[in-house]
Amino acid sequence: MHARHRYLAFTILSEKEKIPREVAIRTIWQSVFRFFGELKASEFDLWIMAYDEIERKGIVRCSLGLVDLLRASLATVTEIDGKRAAFHVLGTSGTVKAATKKFLTKHEKVHKITEIEQKIELINVSGDVVRINPCGEIDILPDAKSRKISERTKSNFIGLTIFDLEILKKGSV
Q1: CB 132 within 8 Å of CB 114
Q2: DSSP tally for the chain: helices H, then strands E
Q3: pLDDT of 64-122, one tens digit each?
Q4: How far apart are the first and last CA of the chain?
Q5: pLDDT score, position 123
Q6: Which CATH architecture has domain 5-103?
Q7: For residue 8, with 0-12 CB atoms within 10 Å meaning exposed, 13-18 middle and 19 or more buried, which class applies?
Q8: Tens digit of pLDDT for each residue in 124-147?
Q9: DSSP state of 100
């Protein structure tokens, strides 16, 4: 009997424009080693099935019963090569083909993270949500439209709160 697997589609949100395949693989393995140790990590049967360095999206294979543990270890990643970064799991599937079709196609739906859209596009601010903490603070990696804001503040991220979003969506700013 062969081992059963699940395929986890992910994207890496990062300050870096391009993350090489080797760096993505190393980061995934390091997160699992740090969180569970070498003995447990050997049970994961991890394998990168697909990865696009430019889009920073990929599919990682994992043992069937360990998908939630892999998700937990990926959530601990906060930087890659000295730049702030986060893994965002797009979803899981039983086959590579289904994971690709559901989560990595160009007409990909924008997934919501606790009622806040992953992609923020407002009048003055737009970009990808990198982190949301329990206090309702949001770190956004700005796109070209909002890059001037981050340059003014000498930061690579824009920080907002849930209240800021509500005000911006109402058009009060």
Answers
A1: yes
A2: 5, 11
A3: 999 999 999 999 999 999 988 999 999 999 999 999 888 887 533 333 333 444 455 55
A4: 61
A5: 53
A6: 2-Layer Sandwich (3.30)
A7: buried
A8: 667 777 766 655 667 777 776 666
A9: H
Q: Which amino acid is at 144?
A: A
The predicted pLDDT at position 157 comes to: 66
Higher pLDDT, 37 or 145: 37
Buried-exposed string 12-51: b where 16+ CB fall within 10 A, e elsewhere? bbbbbeebeeebbbebbeebbeebbeeeebeebebebebb
Structure tokens at 161: 């709160």
Domain boundaries, the chain: 5-103, 112-170
Structure-token pair, residue 55: 């889009």
- Residue 144 exposed, middle or buried by CB count within 10 Å (0-12, 13-18, 19+): exposed
Write the burial class of residue 136 (CB in 10 Å: 0-12 exposed, 13-18 middle, 19+ buried). middle
> Token pair 């903490």 is at which residue?
133
